[in-house]
Structures are given as C-alpha cells and as structure tokens.
Amino acid sequence: MELLSILFEVTTGHGLAALGAGAAAIGAGIGVGLIGKGALESMARQPESSDDLRANMILAAALVEGVALFGIIICLLVVLG
Amino acid sequence: MRTFASFFEQITRMITEFAKQFVFTALILLGGLNFVAAQTDGHGEVNHNNHSNHDVQDTSHNSQDDGEHKEFVAKDFIIPHIADANEIHFFGDHHSGFSAPLPMIFYVEGKGFDLFMSSKFHSEDGSHDEHAVLTAVGPNTGTVYIKNPETGISSTKGESFYDISITKSVFGMMFIMALLVITLRSMARSYSKYPGQAPKGLTNVLEPLVLFVRDDIAVPIIGKSKADKFLPFLLTTFFFIVASNLLGLIPFIGGFNITGTVGVTIVLAFVVFFITTVNGNKNYWGHLFWPPGVPNLVKILVVPIEVFGMFLKPTVLMIRLTANMTAGHIIILSFVSLVFIFNQNYGAVAGFGMGIFSTLFMIFMYFLELLVAFLQAYVFTLLAAIYFADATQEAHH
User: Fold this and answer.
1) Contact B219/B227 with Cβ under 8 angstroms?
2) Does some domain include residue A6?
3) For B320-356, how does the pLDDT look when each residue is reduced to its tens digit (9 = 90+)?
4) Considering all CA atoms of chain A, what is the largest pairwise distance in Å, rounded to the nearest integer?
C-alpha cells in the first residue's frame, strides 16, 4: 500500500516521465543482458570465434540501446517540453 | 581479426595514459567544485544581508538576485551546457565567468549580411540575469536582433533572416576538420616519403585505427572488390566522430557537444542515406519494391514496411549517436549538479561529501564515455557499411 502511495506521488507532474526512463532502462538491461549471455556462452564453446562474436555482440547491443534511447529521448522531451 | 585485438590493446594503453591525467583532473575538480559550492552559499548570505541593510533602495532587484543565487535548478544548469551556443563558455557564472565570443552572421533578405561578435548582445536595462532578453543592432542592415534565452534569436520588426552564425558546434567542427586534415594528410604523406618503413609517432598510433576500419568493418561487410569505393567515406566519418566525441570529453574548454547536436548527426545520417540511395543497384531496389519469393498478398504488407525502413535506418543512426553523446554529457553534469543540490538542501558538509562521491563517479563515467566515444564511432561506421553493402548486394536467389 505504501508503495502505491509513493508511486502515486511520483506519477503526478513529470514523475511519469521518470518512470518511463526507468522502464526503458529495464528493457535495455534485459536486452543487453541476453546478448551478453548469448555471446559469452558461444565464446566459451568456441573460443576461436571470439573476435567475430565480439563485433556482432557490440552491434546487437547498439541496436537494442538505440531503441532504449528512443524511450529516454521521449521522456526528456516530456520533462523539458 | 588480429587488428581487432590490437585495437583494444591500443585503447587499453591509451586509457592507462589518460588515467594519470584524469586523477589529476579529478583532484582539481574536487577542490574547484567545493570552492564554487561554498562560494555560492556565501554569496547568497551576503545578498541576504544586503537585503536587510539596504531595505529601502532597490528592494526588488536585490530580492531577485537573492532568489537567483539561492535556488539551484539542475535543468537550468545542464541544458545550456549541452545545447549549442553563440559563445564558448569556459567557467564561472554567466556575467562574472570567462567566455569567448563567436562571430554572428545574419543574412537579411533584400538588405544584405550582418557580421558582428556575439559579445555585442547586451540587455536593455543593464541587468546580467541569465534569463535576460538581449539585443544587438546589425552594423550593416540596422536590423535589431533579439536574443531570448527561451525562444532563440528573432528580429524586432519580424523581418525574415537567415542565421548562419558560427556557433560553438560549428567552431568545434571547424577545429576538428583542420586538425584531421593537417594530421591525417601529413600521415598519408609520410607513407610515400618513407616507403617500406615502420610508421613512427602519431602515425603509429592512428595506423591500427585505419586498419581496423578497413579490415574489420569495410572489407568483411562490403566485400573486397567494392570496399575501396566506400572506404574514404567510412574512414572520414569514423575519425570525425571519434575526434568530436573526444573533444566533448575535455573539461574546461567549453564543453563541446558536437555529435550530440541533432543538426550535425542529421547531416551525417543524410549523407549515409544519400550514398546508399545513389549506389543502390537493381537487387537493392528489387528487394525494396518487389521482394523475390514473397507471396503477392504478403507483398502489400511487406513493401510499405521496407520503404518505411529505408527512411527509418538513417533516422535511427542519427538518434543513436545524438542520444548517446548527449546522455553521457547529461550524466556527468548530473553528478556535478548533485553537489550543488546536496549543498543547498543539507548544508556544506553534505555538499563536500557528495563532492567526493560524485567526483569518483564522474571519473568512472569519464572512462565509460571514453569507451562510448570509440564505440559509437564504430557502430555508426559499421551500420553505414552494412547499409552500403545492402545497396550493392549481388543477386543470391
């Protein structure tokens, strides 16, 4: 109940944008985490393909991060606009 | 793939080099920040005393000053630092600080050009408020320009004009261009001057980066035969982005945020889009408008998405670079703001403690930003190469 009242307090005004930024961070965290997990597991199985995997891992992480940054930019626009 | 490893080795070496300098910088920052924080606090009190002593004269002005010094709004501190500006602001407050003016260039339709320094802008009532509306008269056309911190520059009579001023970002870009042209051209010349010899000095540092772009980005993705055509653009973009990202990380030189300015990245992305479109062969356009092997009914659904994606790709390229660099600046500035906020709300001791804490975090963020500076240049170049490879693909069905 207390959490709900805190949430309610936060969501008045620009607080929702802050929550949105948090949600974007969660999404990016899960995405980048999965990419890192996959890349590490593959590297452990086939160490000789590490360099190839690393480049592709960075690329995939950048793509995920781009989507998260979309969200963050929109939150920023809400706060500043 | 060997160059990829050596690239990281090079970066690790650079970071250890930087580490020494950053510890030094951090010490200065720690001292400087707390000094500024304490000064701000003292200032407010002095003004308060003034207020009570000279209650009769200038009450309104004094109380306004009082409010300005006491209230610290993080937004008002951070946004001017990451936004483009008409002067290079080094340190201090807006009126007592030190900043270098930049030339303002306006073209008024039918009247001609106006050229003057941004220091010509002054407020009518002589106040030095950050939010004051400033005016300046064009020396050539006599147009009165109004600079409003909220809405930007306009003219009194509503005349339409083109603002082609050399702003902070433009100045930074010119500096980067000059730097790159001078260093990279002399590098290139040294290869023909000393053929067959190992590179020395700066050439030795930058050669792995050039090889990295060629052997790890252009050749594997675009293909050996076509890579040479796109390599000059990829190398130029890579070095431009790396240099502007690193310039933005140097403290006390004005806080350039070149790649965090939408106008810069939108042009970079547009050039990528332009090259992709111009080089698109019949396979590329075929995949866009008549994807092979897709049922006709599904084509109705797929083709609009593909065409939309054609414009979306450079847009995402633009937003990723801008948002990443701006986010880095905002995070570092937020740690600076925390010192002021703690100082204001919980006293000078809390401000000092926060100063230590946020300085440590700032050093950490600086290292992260150093990595991001290279990573974002790499990602931009890599994606541009992928789009070029897409445009020049061979038929494989």
Assistant:
1) yes
2) no
3) 899 889 888 988 888 888 888 888 888 889 889 989 9
4) 54
Report CB contact under 8 Å: A62, B375: yes
Q: Give the span between the Cα atoms of B49 and B42, in whole angstroms.
A: 11
Contacts for B274 with CB less than 8 Å, ≥ 6 apart: none
Cα separations (Å) of B41 from A1, B27, B46, B203, B205?
A: 40, 22, 9, 50, 47
* Average pLDDT, integer, range B36-56: 37
For chains A and B, what is the number of CB pairs under 8 angstroms?
Answer: 39
Q: Are A59 and B323 a contacting pair at CB < 8 A?
A: no
Give contacts of B4 with chain A, Cβ < 8 Å: 51, 54-55
pTM above 0.90, yes or no: no
Backbone angles phi, psi at A14, to 5 degrees: -90, 5
Nearest residue on chain B to A57, judged by CA atoms? B379
From B373's Cα to the closest Cα of chain A, the distance in A is: 13
Which residues 11-50 of chain A have a CB within 8 Å of chain B?
none
Phi, psi of B128 (to 5 degrees): -110, 25
CATH number of the domain bearing residue A35: 1.20.20.10
The ipTM estimated for the assembled molecules is 0.74
Would A67 be classed as within a structural domain?
yes
Note the pLDDT of residue B95.
Answer: 60
Residues of A in contact with B323 (CB under 8 A): 66, 69-70, 72-73
Q: How many domains does chain A contain in total?
A: 1
Q: Does B216 sit within 8 Å of A52, measured CB to CB?
A: no
E strand or H helix at B107, and its extent?
strand B103-108
DSSP for A41-80, written as a single string: HHHHH-GGGHHHHHHHHHHHHHHHHHHHHHHHHHHHHHHH
Q: Identify the domain containing residue A54 by its residue range.
A: 18-76
Q: How many angstroms separate the CA of residue B185 from the nearest CA in chain A?
A: 29
pLDDT in tens, B83-128: 888 888 887 766 667 778 888 888 888 788 888 888 888 777 666 6
Mean pLDDT is lowest, of B51-60, B138-147, B357-366, for B51-60
Question: Do A54 and B5 lie within an 8 Å CB cutoff?
Answer: no
DSSP string, B187-226: HHHHHHHSTTS---HHHHHHHHHHHHIIIIIIHHHH-HHH
> How does strand B103-108 pair with strand B122-123?
unpaired
Task: Measure CB to CB from residue A73 to each of B319, B378, B382 and give the nearest one.
Answer: B319
